[in-house]
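Task: complex structure prediction.
Instruction: return structure tokens for all chains below.
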Amino acid sequence: MLPEFELLMPRTLPEALEMLAGRAPDGMPIAGGTNVIPDLRGGRYRPACLVNVAGLPELSGIRQEDGMLVIGGGVTVAEVLEDPLVARYAPVLREAARSLASPLVRNRATVAGNLANASPAADMAPPLLVLDAEVELASREGTRRVPLKDFFLGVRRTVRQPHELITAIRVPLPPATARARFFKVALRKADAIAVVNGAVRVDLGDSGFCQTARIALGAVAPTPIRAYEAERALEGHPLTPETIAQAARLAAEATRTIDDIRGSAAYRRHVTEVLVRRALEGLWSRE
Ligand SMILES: Cc1cc2nc3c(=O)[nH]c(=O)nc-3n(C[C@H](O)[C@H](O)[C@H](O)COP(=O)(O)OP(=O)(O)OC[C@H]3O[C@@H](n4cnc5c(N)ncnc54)[C@H](O)[C@@H]3O)c2cc1C
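Output:
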């Protein structure tokens, strides 16, 4: 059963920020509700007040602005799947969106909610990490931007303050020479939380040497993580079977896996190495 709570329905962003500031720390944003409602039913938390941010006009839409792809804080995963700018500049995000839950959930679930919920297995996190995304946070006092790599603090903990809203996720437009892939292993092929997920991005430039490498992993640590050592093993080097194997080994070493109902720590670690290697080989073979 749902516990009792007050539901506030702001019509604009300033109204929502005012409401959150007035109720902090007991007020909680709700967007699609696909995490909040099951969590309320399960007793994970009991906020006195929910502030509905779904449908706020200021949080809608995906646009290109100043060399950035800007994904509004109210954009749903289904909208990401349909968007031509995402298809053009961030197909890796589209791959991840396709793997998240089911069409029914994707119609409600927002990208911002997926990040703010801070599940270690959040499917939107690895692609946005390899794209060097920033999270735009707004409060009554103003706006700040936080690199996504610094956003997560722990399981369901982020740097977001209770009176702040994610108003946008900003992604620098990647160079045309960059390639990226998403990967996910789950207990079913669809509508399942990841046992391991992740993304890789490599920019080979024109030199054939790896100029930028990004490797992000989910469900293998308390937060989605970047595998920095593995990235360094690629940067400045050509993408060869040897450098790929080394990066994949280092990515597995970056994990802090645990046993849970979805898989053992050892399996997660092993599968991380395999998936990173395959994802990097996939980029390479497309050349
Ligand atoms: C059946 C089912 C299957 C699922 N499968 C997957 C899956 O495969 N992969 C996956 O990653 N997730 C999955 N999920 C989880 C969920 O759908 C996603 O995390 C979703 O993206 C959350 O978005 P939401 O808009 O529903 O968030 P909500 O439930 O509304 O909110 C989630 C959290 O984000 C906060 N929040 C929401 N919007 C904002 C904002 N603009 N600013 C600040 N804080 C905000 C809320 O306060 C809350 O803490 C599944 C859920 C269900 C019910």
